[in-house]
Each structure stands twice: as structure tokens, then as C-alpha cells.
Design a protein that fits this description.
Molybdenum Cofactor Biosythetic Enzyme, Chain A, 15 helices, 409 residues, Rossmann fold, three-stranded antiparallel β-sheet, 15-stranded mixed β-sheet
């Protein structure tokens, strides 16, 4: 195996797997504590560790590493969101420290940039479509609000390791020498600037031999090109399987501005989960939603069930955000499992929602079949239910994403 990744949520894992697949690597996704199949160029273990307590997130990541090391990968990769979703307590820093310790590595890179989706880093500051991270919609995330675009400062709060910046000038120059000098100077985690795909290509070329890297999915586009040039990878043609007949189910648990706009653009019949009723009487609200989903599938061929709401709408309920999130995960899992035999496609928006849905379906592993949008592949379970899954990070996708997913999965 060339590449073994540990992702801190399910949509992040599918994002990375899609990038690897599209650039020629045979890639398998493994959900939760499932076994890692042999025979692939790359494996991505998807965890639900992003919003857990740091100690639990670290243990899950170390356990995943042990399963992946059985396949002797050339490189281990810790995958987190390109918007660096975390809190001042973690979990990016603690997980990076733990993996460095397990692998005996004194130095690594952090490369969150994903220029194709508007995530860029300059002088250690992260931007979303040209807007500083702390001024973007990510500042209102219900679980991991990002209130500082200075990633050196943000990551420095999470880890005792010394954090530094590999600036854009170094990325355009001799990267290996610059990184070696940083390590000599005592830096242990270097945040690499990148504002174009070309910058990611340069980073991949310089660090393809590093035992441990961390970052977003951008390197998933760049690294396979290096593997091909070095003869590590045998090219393959990405699959083009379509499965657009039959009913489809859209479950939108993300509250991101992108998902809200995509739902508005899709239009048609959509059912909103009543958070107040869900916390008061979960069984009754679940029954109502299931009835509504079946009606929509009969009338328009697909159903849209959404808990997505603006920050103002969430605040107006006065409910505890984490309690509501737990109830919603349970609801979406029940809906997916109940309707699995009645649908051919299941499209999910939101990392936590995707984790709940795949767990409820009992999906342990899946292969990428095609790309819907940058960072959003369609996947087919390995030995699981005969449906196509599309797991979308809340912030990803073009304005017409849901329509494209319905027509191309």
C-alpha cells in the first residue's frame, strides 16, 4: 500500500478518497473500526473523531493507525477539514502529536489548503474564497466555530509542539532545504502555505517520501501524480457506473451556508425536522418524517429531509446544540436504515450525519465509483446494501450540487 489515511469525519474521508481515485489510485474507504481490505493503492479510514474529547479522538486515531500499518504503507496521512475545523482544545493538534509519537517522527507538515474549493493559506492565515476564516460562515459552526484565521496561533493552542509556517516563498523555492532548516530550528509542525494547485504539486513532490503528513484533501490530487512518475502506481480508469433508476433520499444535516443555498436551489418538496418536537417526542417526530419521506418519493421520485437551519434559527429554539445534534444523528440513522430497501441512491450532507447514516446501514467499507463535484464522490458499499452513497461535507459542492447528485450517482 502506498498511502494510508485517517480522517476525522466521514465526508472528509470520502472527499480525500475521491481525489485519490480521480487521479489514478485504487482507493478503499473504511468506516469506523472496520477491517482494512488488501489490494488497494490507498486506504482511508473514516472516523467520527472531530468533535469528541481529545483523549478519545487520539485513541481512535491510534487504533486506526495500527490497522493500517498491517499493510505497510509508504506514507501515513492525518486528514482534517480544509477549514481546519477544531476547537482550542483539539483535535488536530493532539492527533498529530499522537501519530508523530507512534511513528517516531520528530517533524511533519500541516497542509489544509484546497484551492479548488477556495481554501487557501498565506503566511499561516487560512482563507475561504478570499475571506479570512474567522469572517467566513465557519465562525457560526454549531460544534467547531472557527474564530481565528491565524492557524499558527490556533494550532499552537492545541499542542505543546512548536508550530511554524513554511511560507509561500519557500514553497516556490527549495522546499526540502527550507523544511530541514525549520526542523533544525526546533519546529515540529510546519503549516505549509498554498494558494494554487501548483503549490500543492510542489509540496507533494518534495514530501512524497515523508512517513507522516497531515492536511486537507488537496494533497490527494497532487500525490498520485508523484506516485505515477516514480513508478509506484499503475494507472487505472475511474469507474463510470450510474445507478439513477429508482427513488433517492437526500438527508441534509449540515447547517453550512453552502448546503442551505443548495437546498434552496434544488427546490421541490422538502421536509424540515422539528427540533423542538424531536427532543420532546423522538418516536412521533421520526414517524412523521418517515411518512413524509415516502410521500415525497411517490410524488417527485426523491425525498429531501433536512435539519439545516441558519444560526439565527438555531439560536431561536433555545435548545442545547450538542443534545439536538445527537438526536438528529439518531433520527437520520433510523430514516436511512428504514428506507434502505426502498431507494437506490442516498445523498447525505454533513459529516456527523454521514457518520450516523453509514453506521446505521452497517457499511464498513466502500469503493469510489465517480466524482459528483470536487471533493464529493459517489461510492458503492463493499459487501453492503446495493445502493449508491454520496456523502458531502457541508461546505462543499456547486450551487446545483443536489441536482447533479441525483442525476449522476
Amino acid at each position: 500500500m502506498i498511502f494510508a489515511a485517517i480522517a476525522d469525519d466521514f465526508t472528509g474521508g470520502t472527499d480525500l478518497a475521491g481525489m485519490l481515485h480521480e487521479n489514478g489510485a485504487r482507493t478503499v474507504l473504511v468506516f469506523g473500526d472496520g477491517a482494512v481490505p488488501a489490494g488497494y493503492d490507498a486506504a482511508v479510514v473514516c472516523l467520527k473523531s472531530r468533535s469528541l474529547a481529545p483523549a478519545r479522538a487520539v485513541q481512535m486515531s491510534v487504533d486506526a493507525l495500527a490497522r493500517l500499518r498491517v499493510h505497510h504503507p509508504r506514507q501515513v496521512f492525518s486528514k482534517y477539514c480544509s477549514t481546519f475545523d477544531s476547537t482550542p482544545k483539539g483535535n488536530i493538534g493532539p492527533i498529530t502529536d499522537a501519530l508523530m509519537n507512534e511513528l517516531g517522527e520528530p517533524f511533519t507538515l500541516a497542509v489544509p489548503a484546497l484551492p479548488v474549493n477556495g481554501r487557501t493559506q498565506y503566511l499561516g492565515h487560512l482563507f475561504v474564497n478570499g475571506v479570512p476564516l474567522h469572517e467566513s460562515p465557519m465562525r457560526n459552526h454549531p460544534l467547531n466555530p472557527m474564530t481565528d484565521s491565524n492557524l499558527v496561533r490556533w494550532l499552537g493552542r492545541q499542542t505543546p509542539s512548536r508550530v511554524g509556517v513554511l511560507p509561500l516563498a519557500a514553497v516556490a523555492g527549495d522546499l526540502a532545504i527550507a523544511a530541514q532548516q525549520m526542523e533544525t530550528d526546533g519546529v515540529e509542525i510546519a503549516l505549509a502555505d498554498a494558494i494554487t494547485d501548483g503549490d500543492l504539486d510542489a509540496i507533494a513532490e518534495a514530501f512524497a517520501d515523508f512517513p507522516l503528513l497531515t492536511g486537507g484533501s488537496g494533497l490527494g490530487m497532487a500525490l498520485p501524480k508523484v506516485w505515477l512518475r516514480r513508478g509506484w502506481l499503475t494507472p487505472h480508469e475511474p469507474g463510470l457506473t450510474l445507478h439513477t433508476q429508482g427513488a433517492a433520499l437526500i438527508l441534509a444535516g449540515s447547517c453550512s451556508a453552502a448546503t442551505l443555498a443548495q437546498l434552496e436551489r434544488l427546490g421541490g418538496q422538502q421536509a424540515n425536522v422539528n427540533a423542538m418536537e424531536l427532543t420532546r417526542d423522538p418516536e412521533a417526530e421520526t414517524g412523521r418524517i418517515l411518512k413524509e419521506a415516502r410521500r415525497q418519493m411517490r410524488e417527485q421520485g426523491h425525498a429531501v429531509i433536512r435539519s439545516s437551519a441558519t444560526a439565527e434559527e438555531r439560536d431561536a429554539t433555545g435548545l442545547d446544540a450538542r443534545l439536538v445534534a445527537e438526536e438528529l444523528e439518531t433520527l437520520f440513522g433510523v430514516i436511512a436504515a428504514t428506507l434502505a430497501d426502498e431507494i437506490t441512491r442516498l445523498i447525505v450532507a454533513g459529516g456527523e450525519t454521514s457518520g450516523a447514516v453509514t453506521a446505521a446501514l452497517g457499511v464498513e467499507a466502500a469503493e469510489v465509483t465517480r466524482i459528483i463535484d470536487p471533493g464529493v464522490p459517489a461510492i458503492r458499499p463493499v459487501g453492503g446494501p446495493p445502493i449508491t452513497l454520496v456523502l458531502k461535507s457541508g461546505n462543499f459542492g456547486s450551487p446545483d450540487f443536489f441536482r447533479k447528485a441525483l442525476e449522476n450517482s
